Amino acid sequence: MMLKLRAKMDRQDVAVRDWSDASVVFRAWIEKNGYGASNLARGAGDILDMGKKVAHVSFNGRVWAANGKEII
Q1: Pairwise CA distance, residues 13 & 23, whole Å
Q2: At the N or C end, where does the chain have fewer CB atoms within 10 A?
Q3: Which residues pair with 64 in a beta bridge?
Q4: What is the pLDDT of residue 10?
Q5: Separation between Cα atoms, residue 66 and residue 50, nearest integer Å
Q6: Cβ burial, residue 1 (10 Å; 0-12/13-18/19+)
Q7: With pLDDT > 90 as the criterion, what percentage of the chain qualifies?
Q8: What are the φ and ψ backbone dihedral angles of 20, each rounded to 5 degrees?
Q9: Torsions phi, psi of 43, nearest 5?
Q10: In whole angstroms, how far apart are CA 37 and each of 2, 12, 32, 58, 60?
Q11: What are the two backbone dihedrals, phi and then psi, of residue 46, each rounded to the nearest 5 degrees?
Q12: Rounded to an integer, what distance in angstroms lies between the CA atom of residue 54 and that of residue 40?
């Protein structure tokens, strides 16, 4: 599975291996930039598979499926 993590503030998508990797990468990006939840643009934390949103990483690093169920 090839996933992309959307980091809207940087206007770039980052390749991630899996849900856990997406969580770690997103939290590291937030910490590195000193962002608070209010700094994140709409769509930041979205996880895409072939351009389609399949999940989302919330500010606290939890990963949610597109249907709203917690993955990790």
Answers
A1: 14
A2: N
A3: 56, 70
A4: 61
A5: 14
A6: exposed
A7: 67
A8: -60, -45
A9: 95, -15
A10: 27, 18, 14, 9, 9
A11: -65, 140
A12: 19
CB–CB of 26/61 below 8 Å?
A: yes
pLDDT less than 50: residues of the chain: none
Residue carrying structure tokens 């993590």: 5
Structure tokens of 8?
């809207």
Looking at residue 19, what is its pLDDT?
Answer: 95
